[in-house]
Write a structure and sequence with these properties.
single chain, alpha+beta, Alpha-Beta Plaits, 20% helix, 40% strand
Length: 219
């Protein structure tokens, strides 16, 4: 059974944050492989399988929007929380008016992508019966079912998805998105769960297509 799947993903806004931007959010020009993987995970996630994104097609021109919004610049103290749990009472309130910070963000708007990924069996029953999981994904994706709402970089930017069964019959990618877009976040390396490390790759797009097969990843 074919274990390669394709999803069309669209959204009004998106933000795939560049890690080098420390305070204000600035998005990459298009979806990162890790964000694409999370869309597949949101539809079907099991510990015995994983998704490998092999190809990203940009279907719409890159459009930007600058937004200034209020954010909370603090979190509740862990020490105060532990003290309150021990004593049975305590002050755990966080007053938004005192911690409010206004920050600007450079986001994407009116985005559309076609994501190609392969289902890989890693342990358990999936090694002997991968077709079972492939059928589960096909059934769920065709009905629009998901474990959690897929999003485009930030949870407030929800994504609409559609299972593509015949990618060759779909519209061509946006040829205007072309060239070397520099270093981009690929994913996190969880070989050491206590200390996950980011992995980067050189994002080279050819007429709207980012081919991830055989990509060189650096840590």
């Amino acid at each position: 059974m074919d274990l390669n799947f394709c999803l069309e993903v669209k959204g009004d806004y998106a933000c795939f944050t560049r890690p080098e931007m420390k305070v204000e959010r600035v998005s990459y020009d298009f979806i990162t492989p890790s964000a694409a993987r999370s869309v597949f995970d949101s539809i079907l996630w099991k510990p015995e399988i994983r998704w490998e994104v092999e190809r990203i097609e940009v279907l719409a021109p890159v459009r930007w929007i600058s937004v200034r919004r209020n954010e909370v610049g603090a979190v509740i103290s862990t020490r105060n929380l532990q003290t309150a749990m021990t004593a049975g009472h305590g002050q755990l309130g966080l007053y938004v008016e005192d911690e409010r910070q206004q920050r600007a963000g450079l986001f994407l708007r009116d985005v559309a992508y076609r994501l190609h990924a392969r289902l890989v069996s890693v342990k358990g029953e999936a090694l002997h019966n991968p077709a079972k999981y492939a059928e589960m994904f096909t059934r769920r994706a065709s009905k629009g079912q998901c474990v959690n709402q897929p999003y485009l970089g930030c949870r407030e930017f929800d994504a609409r998805f559609r299972l593509v069964t015949t990618p060759h019959g779909e519209p061509e990618p946006c040829a205007d998105v072309d060239g070397d877009f520099g270093w981009m976040l690929y994913d996190l390396d969880y070989s050491r769960p206590a200390d996950p490390r980011p992995m980067f790759f050189r994002a080279k797009v050819v007429r709207g297509v980012l081919d991830l097969s055989g990509v060189e990843v650096r840590r």
